[in-house]
Design goal:
mainly alpha, 5 helices
């Protein structure tokens, strides 16, 4: 494994970015699920199935409405992700 046993700021930054990307991807998938459910109820299952997870329309919709799907509770998850990502790969000062 490339980073096995390594610690320090570069890995802390990678861990923080990975955590934030993970939260963003999770929100994106939730929004896609909501959109397909609503479209399925309004226009039928065929219309809902036509909405691709990776379509540019879906990405644009998500980007335009990110403020509507974010809540104060998300700040807790972001804080936990950043704190954990910063703490775990932190250099300990001990050289073994």
């Amino acid at each position: 494994m490339m980073f096995k046993g390594q610690r320090g700021m570069p890995l802390q930054i990678v861990a923080i970015i990975s955590g934030l990307i993970g939260i963003l991807i999770g929100k994106y998938i939730i929004v896609h699920n909501i959109v397909t459910t609503v479209v399925g109820e309004d226009q039928g299952a065929a219309a809902a199935e036509a909405i691709s997870l990776f379509s540019m329309d879906m990405v644009s919709f998500f980007a335009a409405n990110i403020g509507s799907v974010a809540s104060g509770f998300d700040l807790l998850w972001i804080a936990l992700a950043v704190f954990t990502a910063w703490s775990i790969p932190k250099a300990s000062g001990l050289k073994i």
